[in-house]
Amino acid sequence: MKKYDIVFVNPGDRKEVYQGLGSTISAIEPPFLTASFAAYLRNEGFNVSIIDANALNMSPQETAELVKELDPLLVAIIVYGNQPSASTQNMPISGRLARAIKKVSDIKIVFAGLHPSALPQRTLEEESIDFVIEGEEQVPLKELVTALKETKELSSVSGLWYYDNKALKNNPKHDLYKELDAYLPIAAWDLLPMDKYRAHNWHCFDRIHNRMPYAAIYTSLGCPYKCTFCCINTPFGKSTIRYRNPELVIEEIGILVEKYGVKNLKIIDEMFVLEESHYMKIVDYILEKGYDLNMWAYARIDTIKKENLAKMKAAGFNWLGIGIESANAGVRDGASKKMRVKDIQNNVRMIQESGIYVGANYIFGLQDDTLETMQETLDLAKELNTEFANFYCAMAYPGSPLYKIALNDGLKLPDSWIGFSQHAYDMQPLPSKYLAPKEIVKFRDNAFHEYFENPAYLDMLEAKFGKDAREHIEHMTKTRLKRKLLEEK
Length: 489
Description:
By secondary structure, this protein is an alpha/beta fold. It has helices at residues 14-18, 32-43, 60-70, 91-104, 114-118, 120-126, 138-149, 180-183, 246-260, 276-289, 306-315, 329-334, 341-353, 371-384, 401-409, 437-452, 455-465, 467-476, 484-487, and strands spanning 6-10, 48-52, 74-79, 108-113, 131-133, 160-164, 167-170, 214-217, 220-223, 240-243, 264-267, 294-299, 317-325, 357-364, 388-393.
């Protein structure tokens, strides 16, 4: 009998994905979903282990040798990322990991996660693996391990793509889990290298040299909205949101605080500030426990309620990440995100007046973008002058409506999966109706430096967070990303 039924591997290549920003600037995030899946299977009686190759900075060869030493029945490579659209950028390292494992052993390998669920057949055909799971992962993983242990027919495994005598087969997906608590239990934090995780730099502007320890958790899965650029709902098959019980969430936060000394905490939910009875219950529990936390979470600009902000700030929600995307109403509406600029301005100020900082998110190169509308967006970003800002290029992530549009219209997609990474050398955004990818990435990279090198921004940063934060940003902007697109004549 094997010691382990299943070993989970968290892939990652910070140098490939982030270039020079990967060594000290980018976050190193714990793989919550992987660790929760592991906990689910452990609760079901299976022997499990996790190799966080990303956090441990292990090469594919080192990871493969460790997998061989552990000798599990099954290796599960869960392809997610630090944010919902980051799954595809982890496909290259996931593929290298699988090939390295197959070179040293005949252990069965399954890919699961957002990208494999979006493109299950292609993933199975292109990678050196045995299985792909389409849809939610927990029950299929349990069924697959059970089938391998008991030599049962694979046809019993829901959502499984596999070969049967060289014939490609796929089974119907499992229904969505109605009650999340049993299927998304408290993560197996004891199986992770908790001393390796590091918060985002801006998350700790007021403690820039104290970004560890760090953790990240989900309190819900999915999103009810239908933004064209988003692929978050791919494993679920529809736009939906389901919640974990606030009592379970606060129990997990308590473990992180009391056992691992976590202060910096990210709420990964795509839409945390949405259902008031859910998120405010968590806020109340945190206040009741008296935890000293530095947290951030995502919110839509139009779901934030002024009357809740003071209590959220008191609980430790020091940052809200909001999706502004574009300053131009036509461009924004084309992305299925209707808001007025005046509402954006008023709500950003309302958040800041409560003492909560804003991390604003902008996208250049949406389908109706021109150079003029992208400049509108940059001008709005500089006017708002939020404590942090993320500048993205529109990308047709597999599983998103934009990906289907790109395929239907014959639009140019990246030549490799790493080309979907926002910060990679090979990054190639989707062309808009009026702009080529080269124009979009050039504008984005220049906008990044114009924003973060702006004296008005740096002065604001120093006034709010101190000289160390300013010097950190000045150091960050010394790294200029290299882009293959911009080097081509």
